[in-house]
Amino acid sequence: MTEGPEPATPVALDIPETCLVVLVGVSGSGKSTFARTHFAPTQVLSSDFCRGLVADDENDQAATGDAFEVLHYIAGKRLAAGRLTVVDATNVQSRARQPLVELARRHDVLPVAIVLDLPEQVCLARNSARPDRDFGAAVIRRQRSELRRSMKGLAREGFRRVHVLRSEAEVAAATISYTRLFTDLRHETGPFDVIGDVHGCRAELEGLLVKLGYELSRDDAGRPVGASHPEGRRVIYVGDLVDRGPDTPGVLRLAMGMVADGTAFAVRGNHEDKLVRALAGKKVTIGHGLAESLEQLGAQSAEFRAQATEFCDGLIAHYVLDGGRLVVAHAGLKEVYHGRASARVRSFALYGDTTGETDAYGLPVRYPWANEYRGKATVLYGHTPVPEPEWINNTLCLDTGCVFGGALTALRYPERELVSLPAARVYFEPARPLADQPPPTDSPGLSEAAPSVDVDPASAEALLAPLGPALPAAARPAGHRADDLLDITDVLGRRIVETRHGGRVQVQPENALAALEVMSRFAVDPRWLVYLPPTMSPPPTSSLPGYLEHPLEAFETYRADGVDDLLCEEKHMGSRAAVVVCRDQGVATARFGAGDGTTGAIVTRTGRPFFAPELTEQVLARLRAAATVAGLWEQLDAGWLVLDAEIMPWSAKATELISRQYAAAGAAARGALPAAVAALAATAERGIDVADLLAKTRDRLDNAVAFTHAYRRYCWPVDGLDGLKIAPFQLLAAGPASGAGATQVDHPHSWQLALADRLVAADPELVVTTRRYAVRASDPASVAAAVTWWEDLTDPRAGGEGMVVKPAAGLARGSRGLALPGIKVRGREYLRIIYGPDYTRPENLDRLRVRGLGRKRSLAFREFALGLEALERAAAGEPLWRVHECVFAILALESEAVDPRL
Questions:
Q1: Whether the Cβ atoms of residue 241 and residue 272 lie closer than 8 Å to each other
Q2: Which helix (H) or strand (E) holds 557?
């Protein structure tokens, strides 16, 4: 028996999860089959397929140039989105591969070559069996010759990994193994303590670690060689552990031990980079504290110096952690570089981006990349010392100049709390005094520091005593100094806004333009716009005689969605408003940057001021006093509140609408119809049969009178505060003067209304209660009682507008996800204002019942999700542009084509 060749040993081809894979091989080597076997169809870009796209013939060589333009364009889009991309072409010539290497560099991903170097006879045989390949053996021989000449130079061309398969057996046995980039620590979720530039200040590092709650471990000589936290927290060093300070070896010994034990991570700083080159004997300029490190390390053992060199040389330039929500790089990193790998990404992470200019001290002027940062990830960095940490667009510099006599600072993540320890003394005179450090922005803005905490464990007292008292907590609240610099590109064009409760919400360009008109001309200061009330959907149209809307449909909608416990709230006929009220002027200035004496804002659904400035402050003063009497400030530990409310009377805001539209229509009907009734009555007396017309006209007159009564009951005179009524029904958010606040929308509505009742009790002349009724949607008796309550509320003699049916729990999840926040059920008489005096006539009701509610319901849900997102971002102290993005989107959605009567 003749045995065949033994199967090849399986070979795992390691490639990064995100990279550009270039398949290289002559025609017939099996590249397309290999691509289909190992990669998803969407990942593979074939030159043959692209020829077909542009010429309807995959073998039309005349279309090759256009085909590769298409291929490179699509590959660029995929790489920009961080997607693995595979190029299936012969690529046997260097000039064909070079544009692909450049494409990978342009998008900061690694180029990988997989070469199928199969025997010539195999390729010839395969091509001869394919009817679409009519070229001769000479073509194969030429391609193979070009491949052989250039294959050894693939690494020099820029390919970071090269895999070569030399036989059919090796190709069949090959597998693809995906590896994470060294920067990818997304699986590490913290909590972390991120520590700024240490620069050889060992004593301060020890003190800060103890202050953070870490327990130090020491070697036989008493030197710290590790630290661990009883709660499992871990440290991240932002680089520049070395140089300038008194004990670089001690810092390295401690940091190296923590990294080895898994209790710390460290990124590479520019000083580690230079130190490694110096220790390797390369020519470097001895300056900026490098001499001190070399001298101190020279006194250590050769073994320690080797370990320190290996440690510093192995440090990565940046890390992406916590599912992509945290990025740590020594000099910071703009979003397009997060998780990417290239020389320019590494350079940016180590040195930042300079303008090419120098300042008065001869130091490079650094480009303020943080001012333009719009990424979702929090970026923590050091490199350029600052007097105190300041949030700028979700980025924070933690280098507070410890070695220059400042402090060593850490940020607790995800708590976003600062912990600092002052330096014992000035160890190194800075070229530029700390007080003269340039701000990261050249524009004025909100200057706010991150929240600080003071952790002082008793076990740390002895160690901390020589270092002096802890840094005082910053007086300014959590925020971002460049917050009042909004960029038009953040809101214009087609936008996708990610919301936690409603997923992705899309805004069309034409709607964004409409919102820009309102925002730029009429809206209040954007710093006060933390929320806009969403529109509200009515229930499915009722089929009951004489009704367009009825509570039964609202109850059934929630019951079908699995939400049983509901609360019916009286719907006040006024104007919806969002109220931001601060405890005092100091809070308004510190938290919202109000330098004009304002202490809050009262805004309409379109972001406009509800009242003139003077009256606004009068109303806010009354609400502030009511909150004080009600004890809300203390209960919520709050310096500011955001309320959802209705302001009455309707005429306080809608005077022009009432006079021009409703009053005019009512007056015309009441003036003309009585004369028509009299004329028809006289005609009937003469024996002419006009009974039907007379009855219809009398009915129209009754409807006109009812129409007038319907809107008049919502109008009364107002003089300043006299006659004004406010009905708060939900506390949306609350927060302290500094630090992060919290949204309150997850509280049950009974809790919300009880809170509002305390404001009513504190100021009954201004604040009015919201009546409510609990109902269980699955209980017929409960439903029937709730319907009776609604009928009594909307009886013409009572004059109520209607009610809003809400999930009793506040934020509730139904069978299809987040449930609608509320369904408005308007009374029969109130709907005359909306649909006209004669809408109750049977022929009109039949026509009006054909109304599509899907678009309105979708709009209500999207605006609700955006409002919650805006509140959460504002309460967490995120940059203004992030809050404004959501508020602007709500206003943009308001210009969608939806029947305004719904």
A1: yes
A2: helix 551-560
Provide the H-helix boundaries in 690-799.
Answer: 691-712, 749-762, 780-793
Provide mean pLDDT across the span 485-507: 85
- State the chain's maximal CA–CA distance in angstroms: 126
How many Cα atoms are found within 13 Å in the side-chain-facing hemisphere of 8? 14
Could you give phi then psi for residue 439, rounded to 5 degrees?
-65, 155
Length of the chain: 902
Mention every residue, 6+ apart, whose C-beta is less than 8 A from residue 315.
239, 266, 267, 268, 272
Read off the pTM.
0.69
Q: How far apart are CA 94 and CA 90, in angstroms?
A: 11
- Start-to-end CA distance of the chain, whole Å, equals 86
Q: By three-state DSSP, how is residue 369 classified?
A: helix
Residue 481 tokens, joined: 């100094």
Q: Please state whether the peptide bond connecting residue 466 to the residue before it is cis, i.e. omega within 30 degrees of 0.
A: no
Tens digits of residue pLDDT in 544-600: 998 999 999 999 999 999 999 999 999 988 889 999 999 999 999 988 888 888 999
| Structure tokens belonging to residue 660 | 């021009």
Residue 900 CB-density burial (10 A; 0-12 exposed, 13-18 middle, 19+ buried): exposed
DSSP string for residues in 414-435: TTTEEEEEE-SS--S--SS-GG
CA distances in angstroms from 147 to 21, 35, 104, listed in the order given: 17, 19, 21
Q: What is the CA radius of gyration of the chain?
A: 36
Helix (H) or strand (E) run with residue 828 in it: none
- Do residues 483 and 527 lie in contact, with contact meaning Cβ atoms separated by under 8 Å? yes
Residue 132: per-residue pLDDT: 66
The C-alpha angle 897, 542, 565, rounded to 5 degrees, equals 95
Written as six digits, the tokens of 514 are 């409409």
Phi, psi of 549 (to 5 degrees): -130, 140
3-state secondary structure of 363: coil
Can you tell me the distance from the alpha carbon of 891 to that of 526, in angstroms, rounded to the nearest whole number? 13
Please answer whether residues 10 and 173 qualify as being in contact, where contact means their C-beta atoms are separated by less than 8 angstroms: yes
pLDDT in tens, 318-340: 999 999 999 999 999 999 999 99
pLDDT digits (tens, 9 = 90+) for 369-400: 888 888 889 999 999 999 889 888 889 999 99
pLDDT at 473 over 50: no
Question: What mean pLDDT is reported for the chain?
Answer: 85
- State the pLDDT at residue 481: 44
